[in-house]
Write a structure and sequence with these properties.
By secondary structure, the chain is of the alpha/beta class. It has helices at 2-20, 26-42, 47-54, 67-72, 88-95, 127-137; strands at 44-45, 60-63, 74-75, 79-80, 103-106, 143-146, 159-160. The protein has one domain: 3-Layer(aba) Sandwich (Oxidized Rhodanese, domain 1), CATH 3.40.250. Helix 2 packs across helix 6 (127-137). The longest helix is centred in the first third of the chain and has 19 residues, at 2-20. The protein starts with a helix and ends with a strand.
């Protein structure tokens, strides 16, 4: 009963908090996430297609994990821009002037061996989800996401450190 009461009070108070900071728009985030969901499903690609796309000129393989995680290992050819550093300017600096540039993303949850350097994240909090939403929200619609779970020690992955 106490939990239900707390939830009800939080829901009643939420609109007041939502107005407190005009630079934070949770309902806007919810709407963006909902609008992106159908496109994301269509943009999931299998590992072989992911690697083929990554080899094409002009395609950006973006790793949005932390700089530390990137340094411990990443797919060869990936460029690191941590999600926490996403801004319109930082994205433009990494992606370039063409908002339709093909962008490929992956995260820890695309790997089957969950030891350092790629510990498993809770599935609803996988970095791919947030990265996809943010990229589309910043105006980059041509994002594709690795759908498969692969072993990062598989030579086809081309995992590198440093």
């Amino acid at each position: 009963m106490h939990r239900a009461l707390c939830l009800a009070l939080a829901l009643i108070a939420a609109p007041a908090f939502a107005q407190a900071n005009p630079q934070i728009d949770y309902p806007g985030f919810q709407a963006l996430a909902a609008s992106v969901a159908p496109a994301r499903v269509e943009r999931l690609i299998a590992f072989d297609a992911f690697k083929a796309e990554a080899a094409k000129p002009g395609t950006l393989l973006l790793d949005a994990r932390s700089a530390d995680a990137f340094a411990r290992g990443h797919i060869k050819g990936a460029v690191n821009l941590p999600l926490t550093d996403f801004t319109a300017d930082s994205l433009a600096a990494v992606i370039g002037a063409n908002p339709d540039r093909p962008i490929l993303i992956y995260c820890n949850n695309n790997f089957s061996n969950h030891r350092s350097p790629v510990p498993l994240k809770r599935a609803p909090l996988a970095l791919n989800i947030q990265t996809f939403i943010n990229l589309v929200g910043y105006g980059y619609p041509n994002v594709r996401e690795l759908a498969d779970v692969v072993d990062f020690t598989d030579p086809k992955v081309e995992w590198v450190t440093g």
